[in-house]
Amino acid sequence: MAEGEPSYIDYEAFLDPDFSPASFANSLVLATNNATDTPLDLSTPLSRVLFDLQEIDTHIHTLTTKSALPLLTHTRDQTAAAGHILQEAEEQVSSVAQGYERLEKEVLRKWEAADEVRIATEKSLATVRLARAVARCLTLGRQLEGQLAEVTGRGGLSSGNDGMSPAPARDDYRALERAASTIVSLRRMFTATGLGEEGYGLEKVKVIRTLRNELVIPSENMVKSRAQQAINRFTMSSISASGGAHGQSGYKQARDARARLSSATTILYLLSPIPKDLPTASDFQPELLLSTFQGYMHTAIMTSLNALSRSLSMLPSLDKTLSDISVKCQDIYALESILGSLRPPSHPLFPPAPTERNGDQRESQPRGNKNNLLQPLLAALDTPSLPSHFWRTLASSLTLRVQEIVNRGGVSARTLRSNRDRLKKDIKECVLRGSQLPASSDKGRSGIDTGNWEREAAVMVSAVASVLDR
């Protein structure tokens, strides 16, 4: 509508967002008809609508006629402004595209080349690390062969496949210690195969698999077997008996026996498996070492039990049997004395323990110190001392053997009953004699042993007397 011209058309009603054609038509019909009329007159409201449309059309025509030039001018100005903006935008887009091409050439392509170099460098680094690990394993393998050559004298393993070969050609248990340390270092390389660890990727190298299967594992079995043999064959009493007339020779044999036991203990300590969830080095329990000593104790106890059971059936052989049993216990006592003076050796897989001075740490502590290799064994056997464990375990099984002899009856049972007083005395003397360090040991403790072992003697005597006195 032109400015200043009145109009009867309610433009605000038509422009209202809530305008409803149906409601508007209904209001026109009601305005031109009575609600009670049966026939409705629709021509009047229809004429009103047509007249309104004609008025609106006239109004639009008038507006467009009068405002055509301003509208065209405005449209032209808007089109020109839009063209100018589009031209400026195209220039900016072109500049951005050129900048991207330059960045792609100067940065992206260089980055792609640098990324290729990075990947190649990472692979080269992994190759170098793997090559170093392989070289270290091969170096340790050659070192292990040399150490075994010192023992076997043949440049490698002995001909026996089971590891139960005779004593080393050159009785060099120190070389076995060094070999055990080398084996542990190789074992560390073989197990550190996680991402970023020293031995990552070693399991994929054929020469390493060959080294492990053909050298390391057989060498470990051989070294382990030699150490276990040294412990199982440990004795000090036989040295006392054979070296009595030659004091210097007996002392040297005792020193060698002690050195062999110390080396064997160190070897089995090093070769004992380490749990993955070990909290600290102080919590480490050398299972291989403990099981070997437990086997040594079990063998000594069972051998003594079987021999004593046979001798109780044939009393003439009892004196020799009791003498042999006391010798076995003296060896056990000597074993306890040596273990009490040995500290846990430094382990390649554990951080070194702080020490006040450099030197041999294994025998520098007194026997009463808790930081020695005796304490784990005593804890595993649940006993205060090895001789006490020997006598008490022997006594616990001896009662049943004596009961079997008595139940069978006959001459053996009657002889036992008639000689029970002498038997008690001999058993007590056997216990007291066996609970002393051998004469070849340099740590004899005269004057206190008898009083300390009266209870063990009473337990052994009771094991026999409790059956014979019934």
Could you outline the blueprint of secondary structure elements for this entry?
Elements: H1 11-15, H2 21-32, H3 43-152, H4 173-191, H5 206-232, H6 237-242, H7 247-271, H8 287-313, H9 318-340, H10 374-381, H11 386-408, H12 411-418, H13 420-434, H14 449-452, H15 454-468
Main location: Golgi
InterPro entries: Cog5 (IPR019465), COG5_helical (IPR048485), COG5_N (IPR049176)
Subcellular location: Golgi apparatus membrane
Distance between the termini: 140 Å
Low-confidence stretches: 158-170, 355-369, 444-451
- Given helix and strand content, the structural type is mainly alpha
Mean pLDDT: 81
Shape type: elongated
Topology pattern, helix = H, strand = E: HHHHHHHHHHHHHHH
Question: Biggest sheet, open or closed, and with what strands and sense?
Answer: none
- Helix percent reads 55-70%
Give the DSSP E fraction (strand runs of 2 or more residues). under 5%
Number of H- or I-type helical stretches: 15
Q: What is Rg?
A: 52 Å
Give the number of DSSP strands: 0
Membrane topology: Peripheral membrane protein
InterPro entries: Cog5, COG5_helical, COG5_N
Subcellular location: Golgi apparatus membrane
Organism: Petromyces alliaceus (Aspergillus alliaceus)
